[in-house]
């Protein structure tokens, strides 16, 4: 019997409970791991509340990121053996392959071996944030040296990953955050400039920073009224990549800015990278190289124990974190 986290109805963090269940052996093409650490993502809170792109099937598991030790391998799996130290590229379905458990099973193509010295907490904190940011900035936008990139929700794990990736490329990361509380931390994390959107004029500050060249790339998780000043500050032919919808307010379509500047507004899910083996291989190589040379380094906001999963989700939804939340087993 294995301890797993499940929920039987939609709701707040309090609906999560730790239960025991039998876990079948891995099927053909799967790898089962003994989980040592979990990386938490906002998608898991959305699934729990019933507002995610995937529907829960009760009782439902959840979780997208894990690191641990290979327990068993299914038929046809090559390259993995028991006791290998591994981490997990987020699966396309966390309902089908939930990570919140002492023992969890995943498709072999999403399992990555790495040196044990990387550490379980760091390994569990890296794939979602770096794959999301890499897919948008490098794979889609083709971010280059000297490009100005505006990054909203910059203190999130994905926002911080985007800052690091921009710096690794030689671009100019501009971090947007609601208040000046996290200004110093964002500068220490590598942001070239920080804009407190509740306290400053976004458009004026971006125009001041980017000058006549404008902002070529906007990486946005928020939406809402900020679309207007963000697009107003963009360069002709620039691209705005939307990967979230944190704002509770309507998002206007900035028709004049889009038309006069020939802007590209593009929705993006990390799934499009994960489901494409060629693009995923390039992303993994970039990320592993960055971890190796130190240009990419996950920032962990706080670590909780498995038994504190409810408290961990409360912290996840508090928006007080700076970086990734990790749960250890």
From TrEMBL:
<dbReference type="InterPro" id="IPR020843">
    <property type="entry name" value="ER"/>
</dbReference>
<dbReference type="InterPro" id="IPR013154">
    <property type="entry name" value="ADH-like_N"/>
</dbReference>
<protein>
    <submittedName>
        <fullName>Quinone oxidoreductase</fullName>
    </submittedName>
</protein>
<dbReference type="InterPro" id="IPR013149">
    <property type="entry name" value="ADH-like_C"/>
</dbReference>
<dbReference type="InterPro" id="IPR011032">
    <property type="entry name" value="GroES-like_sf"/>
</dbReference>
<dbReference type="InterPro" id="IPR036291">
    <property type="entry name" value="NAD(P)-bd_dom_sf"/>
</dbReference>
<dbReference type="Pfam" id="PF00107">
    <property type="entry name" value="ADH_zinc_N"/>
</dbReference>
<dbReference type="Pfam" id="PF08240">
    <property type="entry name" value="ADH_N"/>
</dbReference>
<dbReference type="GO" id="GO:0016491">
    <property type="term" value="F:oxidoreductase activity"/>
</dbReference>
<keyword id="KW-0521">NADP</keyword>
<keyword id="KW-0560">Oxidoreductase</keyword>
<feature type="domain" description="Enoyl reductase (ER)">
    <location>
        <begin position="11"/>
        <end position="327"/>
    </location>
</feature>
